[in-house]
Amino acid sequence: NKQIIFREFAEGIPKESDMAVKSAQLKLKVPEGRPMAVLVRNLYLSCDPFMRLRMGPQMECCFPPFERGLPLVGFGVVQIVDSTHLDFEEGELLWGLTTWEEFSLLAEPFTDAYSLFKIKDLDLPLSYHIGLLGMPGLSAYIGFYEICSPKKGEYVFVSAAAGAIGHLVGQFAKLMGCYVVGSAGSKEKVDLLKNKLGFDDAFNHNDEVDFDAALKRRFPEGIDIYFDNVGGDMLDAVLLNMRLHGRIAMSGMVSQYNLEQHQGLRNLFCAVTRRVRMEGFMIADYFDRYPEFYEEMRRYLKEGKIVYVEDVVHGIEGAPAALIGLLTGQNVGKRVVAVAPD
Ligand code: NDP
């Protein structure tokens, strides 16, 4: 059983040596005396920015650090190999939280409600359940439709726009009839946004020295909605460009996750004068909305309304580098690790 073990708290951008690939012997059975447990084979693992917050040590707010010497924890698509749990049967396919190894023995809290979801339809790729049809998709859906309260014709800006959440938010905004601009970290990503995903405009944040000027060029009338995935200087510049009664969905601050100390904001007072609503959200609070979201996403896909971009890395040995790459912008779309693909 190959495992990705968390070794050391990360300083700055995590290094591969902060993790280790190890092999351990494993019987493909739930051990005797372990009721309400499942042994699963991990088919796909998801690389997500919040995992950096768990690599600590300085993040205080909400995620407990990973335990040194144990496998990392993240979302995955799994198949039950053996079960002593009344709710799960051998052979069933699920998505949810699991451990970063080929096989995982999962018990509470992994088996609680809203930790593992059964996959009921097999007509779409299984990996979609940790992207478009999983936690990032739900974050894009709730974050945009609920937190941003969008209206047709509004001016929308999305950062990390070629990432798992961002590329979906931009397409939802276009479906709503908004004007949409995205920022991303390379020419390849900018081209994807403009030419394949229907964004009205996009720019490479690494090419811009003055974010305020870059936004003013693209939004001469100002921004109604900002879907913030990055925080930091981009958020500060957006505040200077918000329209009256604008909304900012605070999805995440990936530009800050590798920093020892988070940057402050200089322009926050603009939110007062322009009556801007800034609202953070944690998607775990909305898992009860999953069934409604799932049906809606399937409909979007069937009707060809949405393009989903996946970035697949093959083999569990590549998982540490895949996760680090996500934090340095190497992914295009949703990054997943195929461990034992269907
Ligand atoms: P992405 O697929 O967007 O991957 C992260 C991206 O962040 C990279 O591709 C990179 O893109 C960008 N990035 C990395 N470093 C920087 C930087 N210094 N400045 C600007 N951009 C940077 O990840 P997700 O879509 O999964 O997550 C997006 C955000 O949403 C994150 O902040 C995450 O924490 C948050 N999130 C929040 C949830 C919630 O419940 N609130 C749930 C899930 C995610 P580029 O090449 O464009 O720089």
From TrEMBL:
Spell out the SUPFAM superfamilies in the cross-references.
GroES-like, NAD(P)-binding Rossmann-fold domains
Care to name a GO molecular-function term for this sequence? 2-alkenal reductase [NAD(P)H] activity
Checking Pfam families in the record gives: ADH_N_2, ADH_zinc_N
Identify the residues that the record assigns to the Enoyl reductase (ER) domain, covering every copy. 38-337
Enumerate the Gene3D superfamilies for this protein: Medium-chain alcohol dehydrogenases, catalytic domain (3.90.180.10), NAD(P)-binding Rossmann-like Domain (3.40.50.720)
Q: Please provide the record's keywords in A-Z order.
A: Oxidoreductase
InterPro entries from the UniProt entry: ADH-like_C (IPR013149), ADH_N_2 (IPR041694), ER (IPR020843), GroES-like_sf (IPR011032), MDR_fam (IPR045010), NAD(P)-bd_dom_sf (IPR036291)
Indicate what this protein is called per its UniProt record. Answer: Enoyl reductase (ER) domain-containing protein
Recorded source organism is Aristolochia fimbriata
